[in-house]
Design goal:
The chain is an alpha+beta fold and 223 residues long. It has one domain: Glutamine Phosphoribosylpyrophosphate, subunit 1, domain 1 (4-Layer Sandwich), CATH 3.60.20. The chain is built from five helices and twelve strands. The longest helix has 20 residues.
Amino acid sequence: MSGIAGVLIPKRRELITALLDRIAHRGDSKPRLFSDRQGTFGVIRLTRLEKEDRLISSKDGEQVVVMDGWISNLDQVSKDVLLASKNEHSQIEVFLDLYQELGVKVFNVIEGEYALAVLDGSRVILARDRLGIRPLYYGFRDGNLFFASEMKALAGEVDNIREFPPGHYFLSDQGLFPYEPFLPQPVRLNGVQDSARTLGKLLPRVAAERLDGNKLCGVWLSG
């Protein structure tokens, strides 16, 4: 879990630090901040859970990304678009490479649970996973875009706080767009036994795809 916040106003480090202070329970690290002539971004993270940094900028400084969450299929997507499988690099570094290669089409192919923001030149791109597992809120004041992981970070700062819709990306210069629809192949089952066998095959595979080999895993049982 991490906390992200940002505003499309330059040199507002004190403001972003204040927004992150309101959601300090989302991290135990010092705020990492980025500011250029277009906007200011910040992030905090729980260091015992998030070993990788959650903010990165491109070498030329043209793009910066902050992210809460993780992406489960980066290795596969990076191979599909002829990028090297960069296991030695952080997820957010690989995502930035994919974004530079695919643009906003990257959101149609990545999977996982994430809320993220990209500052790309003069515009901000916000995106949230298809199920809305990671929270994200946004609003405007005097035409300036604000965003944060929780509503209370934006309270009193924007005219109207809005929940960012799952499965969408937002371009600050164009508007809100849905991801391409996910259309799974139809499953044909022949009775209860066939259903049980199919579930027995699929469930371990799906669970394995969602496991992060760099982290300890736990199990919660209800009842």
